Amino acid sequence: MESIPTENTPILVVDDDAGLLLSVKTILISSGICDPALVSDSRHVIPLIKKHRFKLVILDLIMPHIQGMKVLQQIKEKFPDTEVVIVTAIDDVSSAVQAMKFGAYDYLTKPLDSKKFTIVINRALERYNLRHEIGLFERKPSFSELNHPEAFQNIVAEDEKMALVFHQAEAIAPTDYNVFISGESGTGKEILTRIIHRLSERADGPFVAINMSSFSKALFEDEFFGHTKGAFTGASSDKKGFFEEAQGGTIFLDEITELDLTLQGKLLRVIQERELYRLGSTKTKDIDVRIVVATNRDINQEVKEGRFRADLFYRLNMCHIKIPPLRERKKDIMPLARYFLNIHARKNRKDIRSIAPDLETALLNYTFPGNIRELENIIASATILENDKELKLSSVPEFTSMSLKKDVRDTEKTGNNSNDTDKKEQFLPLCEIEKRYILKVLKAHGGNRTKTAKVLGIGLRTLQRKIKLFREEQTQDYLTQDLP
User: Fold this and answer.
1) What CA–CA distances, in Å, run from 484 to 404, 428, 439, 443, 444?
2) Is the Cβ–Cβ distance between 26 and 34 less than 8 Å?
3) How far is Cα 365 from Cα 391, in angstroms, rounded to an integer?
4) Where a domain ends, among 324, 355, 384?
5) What angle do CA 445, 446, 447 make, to 5 degrees?
6) I need a labelling partner for 137 at 20 to 30 A (CA). Which of 262, 299, 419, 445 fits?
7) Cross-strand partners of 277
8) Pair 99, 62: CB distance under 8 Å
9) Are 294 and 177 in contact (CB under 8 A)?
């Protein structure tokens, strides 16, 4: 069977079952989407896409001639922009993960729920259009081309890398996709999420932000799904969970990779089914919430090493925005430094009007493991100590000053005939520089991790995780020695 509408259609349906083809066609037409093209022979798929440039292919897995998984690979190899939705009778997690790994937008099992099916199809078409829109800005990102520059007015940014981030956020916001934001601690992931919420059609709905590292296994279900009266001892009344609190709005799950592996399946079910059970209840509650998640870890590595479920990642990673660290946005360092100087000078009633060249040089050559939060802490501390009208390097607290000066010395060595020791020091890996700096700050605060995390501008859990990687015996030895 092969049926191609006379008018251009964005959808091709592929299945060897003619009855299923007609059923899908009926659902799409009755939902007001379009009259799709239909084909039952998988060998004809690639030539048809080449001729008609379909935006979306609805594809069965089990077919004669060429199996659906192979067709999926062929489509993504030859037409990577074309979205593919798998519709199959095989309800198998490994097949779903493999399909989404190959690039499928979603994986649905028969019999189809027409409501959920049309939602998936509409979103797949929206993502096709969205990707093309974002692609327009990846060549020459420009702040002047933003449609809603006022939405970003509270973010200090002049570097072109942030212009691309703003364009991505602006394009993604009007859609209803789940969004995955990656970036180091202190880069502004929550701020960007709030902008996406304000630019979305959910702007009038609630915005609920949660740090996933704050919840234990015992509290997770109660806090996220809520409970009914009498569900357990002390449950004297019904309670809404975070998902219900965010109904009609956006829920932001920060540090998503901190979620225990045993709880990730519970979150996956809510995302897939868009419904949940309160503790103590057998009635489902429909959930209309946009999900934005963030992490400072390498999520692909987390998936590869089995600490994060692949199927959950693919469900969450419908759109991805990566915020670059401050060390890769050199043009933003001094505008941010001057911005923080104005804030903290007013707060401390100081008449400090500028930043001295020595401090500016140090800041521009520093690696900022704590990113924007750390920069603000440096400027805030220096403002408190400075008594002149110009902020100087000598006003930076000693532990920070030593690290900044070292970065300047290393930079000045470039091209000089320094000895082998200097050269090795100059080309230390970034992770080693970060480690040394963290340990310096830790020693300066007598090993107090809470204070150290605050100065670095990172979460306590993040600091603890980094220290654990340094080997405990070396850390303890370092704390008892003088600084190098």
Assistant:
1) 14, 15, 11, 12, 13
2) no
3) 17
4) 324
5) 95
6) 299
7) 284
8) no
9) no
pLDDT per residue over 116-126, tens digit each? 899 899 888 88
Alpha helices for 348-397 (secondary structure H): 357-364, 371-385
Check if the beta carbon of residue 37 is closer than 8 Å to that of residue 100.
no
- What mean pLDDT, rounded, does the chain reach? 85
Which residues partner with 250 through β-bridges?
207, 290
State the residue range of the domain holding 69.
2-118
Cβ atoms within 10 Å, residue 39: 22
* Closest-CA residue to 241 (of 220, 262, 256): 220
Q: Which CATH number is 177's domain given?
A: 3.40.50.300
CB 323 within 8 A of CB 182: yes
Are 335 and 416 in a shared domain?
yes
Residue 6 sits at φ, ψ, to 5 deg, of -65, -35
Measure the CA–CA gap between 288 and 290, rounded to whole angstroms: 7
Nearest to 328 by CA among 441, 164, 192, 190: 164
CA–chain centroid gap for 362, Å, is 30
Tokens for 64, please give them: 């004669």
Contact 448, 433 (CB under 8 A): no
**Predicted confidence (pLDDT) per residue in 233-249, tens digit:** 888 899 999 999 999 99
The number of distinct structural domains making up the chain is 3
- 99 and 155 share a domain? no
Indicate whether 253 and 344 sit together in one domain: no
pTM of model > 0.70: no
CATH number of the domain to which 400 belongs: 1.10.8.60
Tell the residue number behind the tokens 């007015």, with chain if given: 153
Task: Say if residues 229 and 275 touch (Cβ distance below 8 Å).
Answer: no
* Structure tokens, 446: 């007598």
* Residues contacting 359, CB < 8 A, separation 6+: 382, 391, 392, 393, 395, 396, 404
* CA–CA separation, 445 and 479 (whole Å): 10
DSSP lists the bridge partners of residue 88 as 109
